[in-house]
Write a structure and sequence with these properties.
It is a single chain. The strands form nine sheets. The protein has a seven-stranded mixed β-sheet, with no helix packed on it. A five-stranded mixed β-sheet has the order 16-17-18-20-19, covered by helices on one side. The longest helix has 34 residues. The chain starts with 8 loop residues before the first strand and ends with a helix. With 883 residues, the protein is of the alpha+beta class. The chain contains 27 helices and 33 strands. 40% of the residues lie in helices and 21% in strands. The protein is globular, with a radius of gyration of 28 Å. It binds zinc ion. Zinc ion binds next to helix 3.
Length: 883
């Protein structure tokens, strides 16, 4: 149900809680439909509160209240409290002494398809409390700045729920009548309720252990359903790697004796860092060489690391309020990115992260839902688990790392941990610790936290041969975003290198500095600013924004020749890749123009030569090599256009790919053949790189529609013993004309019908295919036995893949894609508002398209707005998109 006008919550209205909770005793008697919750809260007035009232307001939703009791006297009666749809107000509680409030209520986990609070997932009971799920379990001060000590007792049927888990350490267990048993858990660390977790079910576990740097032995457990026990080794090893890395890089040691991970199949997000008891989407735990791809393996290690790192950046030190979400997420994403970079290839990881940021976060930052990494307001906090808060948030932390250097950053993080351990703090507290530890001034830098939108850096260069100087003039601007018409200049670190025309490094010596080095970081702080380099006997080629040192768009007029030069010579791995992307992007954009003018497309030979050079060079890092051969995605190209023309983008990009395949066929074929070998179970960088470059070649060659190549793909599909190769072959078959498409899809389904995560891939692949008939396929798949609107992974793999990864068919000119998506969102609105709201993102960008598509998309958004019982989640996104 929705209020006529959902309430907007503002950061500026923050006040401290009127009451504090010292300890919580929870008692659950589990039942699928009637779980009884008894909560005993030891509370007191918050001395810092300014409010005069004597009443106490607790949050609670969808709860059947049975009893309220104060200080173990007689139960309160209806005159002593008031219940509303989302709260319980007790009119008077003691003001000058501690009091004990006991509340008893019932909840129905089976009816909980929103998957917040306590719910059923494949016969297992589990919780999700971030951001505001705990209020669906019992009445509570459900806000992150109320931190308390939890003791949890769970009572359940022994057969149905043999395993009973909660946070902290297990301190007691026993048997009860009627085949029931009980377990008590105690968490010695104060925590906000969003970190509470409970899991119960027929779970099996894989165990390991870890010895910390101070010599403590930690027991590690990964809980899964019995048939998944053979897919836990990688998760367990990843956890150990993360624990070691956090000790080495941040000096952080784990603090409990036990660390548990539970994999559940129905989950709205990726994973959740509940203290000592992480709950994970199965997608980020389960892996076996034949069921998971190399990128699945990498993502699992990254997400396991992410949730583990939260133990310090999120749990020990948490957010004061939800506006500060980026405090824990931005920092933790930065930490997991660095962890993965250290474990795999720093160059590849950086490119993948920036690629995602630029295609998806930049679009968010330019759209109707643009918000700063620390938003000023929200209606539904679940809508703010965004790429901006997470990924741009991580970029902001990365810039601090660049400005202070690795050592300075470590000093800052040490001070942050020391100063704020056990507290709920703000983004500002984090920046302050960084400043104080380094004597740095980040006053202007703080604007990154409050200003939305992607800044644009426009760079002009002027070489003065007589003085042998090069002057770079950098102007910064940022387009208006909702509620922020005018922007202040930001503090932007810009890494620069200079390259001589023969490919050698030119020394960077700034005017008025006596130091020369291979690379400098310019601090851009003004709207327009010039930097002069001296002692340059010839005009160098400028390599700007190395490593993508700031989340900005760069406008600098490079010629195609300069881009080809940088692709061959830049020593910065990111910029070298970027030069190739820009070169291909510029050529595709020109072809799009030609196409729209009705001219024949002709490929500029400069890109063929540039690719030939890349292909014929020996490479150590084969994954990086294969990235150099990737063309910019259709989504990224769409970002570069004023009015997105999906059909022509697709046509021009396909033309470039096919022509490159034709002209460089021998090179692609040799590379495919030398790197194609059976390497089941090999996950070293060499094997991963060989698979990656080989499959990139296959993807090019498949554009030729040549019978031999089609046969290679089919053979690879049939004989592969690892999912990377099987999936790559199937992708080549499904995304191009191939005589065996239907047969291979049927065989794949039969082979993997019992592996839910593999079947997700099967759905996603078909939904994102550019081949004709895809829309009819998607409609048919909606009725497939294996499809389930109540399972978020399935929804994302079919509806999400079609609307977000299939530009061509989703944006079909007749609007059928839009209508289809709106139908699904309306259905999901009552089942799972959080997932419904996420699916909406494909429609929020409607202003980017031509008039006819705009009208069609807008009409669907309006239809969604007219839904009866529209959820807060969907209402906020739809109404802001239309505003
Ligand atoms: Zn997180």
């Amino acid at each position: 149900m929705r209020d006529a006008n959902p309430q907007t919550i503002y950061l500026k209205d923050y006040t401290v809680p009127d009451y504090l909770i010292d300890s919580v005793e929870l008692n659950f008697t589990l039942d699928d439909e009637n779980t009884q919750v008894i909560s005993r809260l030891t509370m007191r007035r918050n001395p810092a509160s300014q409010s005069a009232g004597k009443s106490l307001t607790l949050s609670g939703e969808n709860l059947k209240l049975l009893r309220v009791n104060l200080n173990d006297g007689d139960d309160l009666t209806a005159v002593d409290y008031q219940q509303t749809a989302d709260s319980l107000v007790i009119h008077e509680v003691p003001q000058d002494q501690r009091f004990v409030l006991t509340i008893e209520n019932l909840i129905n986990p089976k009816a909980n398809t929103a998957l917040e609070g306590l719910y059923l997932s494949n016969g297992m009971l589990c919780t999700q409390c971030e951001a505001e799920g705990f209020r669906k379990i019992t009445y509570y001060l459900d806000r992150p700045d109320v931190m308390a000590r939890f003791r949890t007792t769970i009572i359940a049927d022994k057969n149905r729920y043999p395993v009973l888990l909660s946070n902290g350490n297990k301190v007691g267990h026993g048997e009860l009548s009627e085949n029931r048993h009980w377990v008590t858990w105690e968490d010695p660390f104060d925590k906000p309720c969003y970190l509470f977790a409970l899991v119960a079910g027929q779970l099996h576990c894989v165990e390991g252990n870890f010895t910390t740097q101070s010599g403590r032995n930690i027991s590690l457990q990964v809980f899964v359903e019995p048939h998944d026990l053979d897919k836990c080794d990688h998760a367990l090893q990843s956890l150990k790697n993360a624990m070691r890395w956090d000790e080495e890089v941040y000096g952080r040691e784990y603090d409990l004796d036990l660390y548990m991970i539970v994999a559940v199949s129905h989950f709205n997000m990726g994973a959740m860092e509940n203290k000592g008891l992480n709950v994970f989407n199965t997608k980020y735990v389960l892996a076996r060489p034949d069921t998971a791809t190399d990128s699945d393996y990498e993502h699992i290690e990254g997400v396991i690391g992410h949730e583990y790192f939260h133990n310090w950046t999120g749990n020990r030190i948490t957010c004061r309020d939800w506006f500060q979400l980026s405090l824990k997420e931005g920092f933790t994403v930065f930490r997991d990115q660095e962890f993965t970079g250290d474990r795999t290839s720093k160059a590849v990881k950086r490119i993948e992260d920036v690629n995602m940021l630029r295609t998806r976060q930049f679009a968010e930052d330019a759209g109707p839902l643009a918000h700063p990494i620390r938003p000023d307001s929200y209606m539904e906090i679940n809508n703010f688990y965004t790429l901006t808060v997470y990924e741009k948030g991580a970029e902001v932390v990365r810039m601090i790392h660049i400005l202070l250097g690795a050592e300075g950053f470590r000093k800052g993080s040490d001070l942050y941990f020391q100063r704020h351990d056990g507290q709920a703090v703000t983004c500002d507290d984090f920046v302050k610790a960084m400043e104080d530890a380094n004597g740095a001034d980040l006053a202007q830098f703080r604007r990154w936290y409050s200003q939305a939108g992607t800044p644009v850096l426009t760079v002009r260069q002027h070489y003065e041969p007589t003085g042998q100087t090069l002057t770079l003039t950098i102007a910064q601007s940022c387009p208006p975003t909702p509620g922020q018409p005018v922007k202040e200049p930001l503090h932007i670190p810009v890494k620069v290198g200079l390259i001589n025309r023969d490919g050698s490094v030119a020394s960077c010596k700034l005017k008025d500095s006596d130091q020369a080095s291979d690379e400098v970081t310019l601090s851009v702080t003004e709207a327009e600013q010039s930097f002069t380099f001296e002692d340059l006997t010839q005009q160098p080629v400028v390599s700007l924004l190395r490593g993508f040192s700031a989340p900005v768009k760069l406008a600098m007029d490079y010629s195609l020749e300069e881009l080809a030069f940088l692709l061959s010579h830049d020593s910065d791995t990111f910029n070298r890749w970027e030069a190739g992307q820009q070169l291909a992007g510029a050529i595709i954009m020109r072809l799009i123009e030609d196409c729209r003018n009705g001219w024949n497309m002709q490929l500029d030979p400069i890109i063929v030569e540039a690719f030939r050079k890349v292909l014929e060079q020996p490479w150590d890092d084969l994954s990086y090599f294969s990235l150099l051969l990737d063309l910019p995605s259709e989504t990224y190209l769409a970002e570069q256009m004023q009015v997105v023309d999906v059909e022509t983008i697709h046509k021009a990009r396909e033309f470039v790919k096919r022509t490159l395949a034709q002209q460089l066929q021998p090179q692609f074929q040799v590379l495919y053949q030398t790197n194609h070998r059976d390497e089941s179970g090999q996950f070293d960088a060499g094997a991963i790189g060989r698979r990656r470059i080989k499959n990139t070649c296959l993807s090019y060659l498949s554009k030729l529609e040549n019978a031999d190549i089609q046969n290679w793909a089919e053979q690879q599909f049939k004989t592969a013993r690892n999912m990377t190769d099987q999936m790559a072959a199937l992708t080549a078959i499904v995304n191009n004309p191939h005589p065996a498409t239907r047969q291979c899809l049927t065989d794949f389904y039969q082979q993997w019908r019992n592996e839910a995560l593999v079947i997700d891939k099967w759905f996603a692949l078909q939904a994102s295919s550019p081949m004709p008939g895809t829309f009819a396929t998607v409609q048919a798949l909606m009725a497939h036995d294996a499809f389930d609107l109540k399972n978020p992974n399935r929804v994302r793999s079919l509806i999400g893949a079609f609307s977000q990864a299939n530009q061509l068919h989703f944006h079909a000119a007749n609007g059928q894609g839009y209508q289809f998506l709106a139908d699904q969102i309306i259905a999901l609105n009552t089942i799972n508002p959080q997932v419904a709201s996420r699916m909406l993102s494909a429609l929020t960008q409607w202003r980017r398209y031509d008039e006819s598509r705009q009208a069609l998309m807008k009409a669907q958004l309006e239809r969604i707005m007219g839904t009866v019982n529209i959820s807060k989640d969907v209402y906020e996104v739809a109404s802001k998109s239309l505003a």
